[in-house]
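I'd like us to work through together how a protein chain folds, taking it slowly. To get us started, please write out a protein record for me. Go ahead whenever you are ready, and we will take it from there:
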Amino acid sequence: MLSLDFLDDVRRMNKRQLYYQVLNFGMIVSSALMIWKGLMVVTGSESPIVVVLSGSMEPAFHRGDLLFLTNRVEDPIRVGEIVVFRIEGREIPIVHRVLKIHEKENGDIKFLTKGDNNAVDDRGLYKQLQHYLKSHVLIFSSTCHLDPGLVNKALIAGTVSSILFQYLNNIKHY
C-alpha cells in the first residue's frame, strides 16, 4: 500500500518551508530540462539519449543500455554502423545495424538494417513492399553506449572503497 507519510510532513511545514521545497523541486526540473536541451543542441539530435528496449542488438547492446546519439550529417553512413530510425506509425525508435546500402545514380541513398541478434533483416518491419529505409527516417547514429550494470558496479565499488577508507582512517586515530 502507498504510504502517505509525506503529506503529514507537508502539513507540518510553514509557508516559507513549503515555498522553499516547491522552489527546489522547480529548480531540479528546470535543470534537467536545460541539460536535455543543451544535449540536443550539442548533438544536433532531437533525442540525444535512448534506452535499448529489446535484445535484438545483443551482444553489442543489452536491454536497458543507454545510447548517446549524434546527428552526424557530414559523415556518410557505412555498412556495419549502428543507426537509430523511426518507422512510420511507430513512436518507439529502433536501434539496429546497417546491413546494406543501396545508392541510386541520382544520389538517393537507402539502407537495409538488421538487429545483430535477429535471424533475418528488418524488411518485415518496414512498410509493405518497402525493401530499404529512406535516409529521412534515420534519426541518428550511435556514438557511445553506457551499460547501467557497469555504472551500478562502479557506484557500489566507489561506496565500498569510501567506507573502507573512512574505516581505516578511524582505526589510525585510536
Notes: The mean pLDDT is 78. The chain has two domains: 5-43, 49-149.
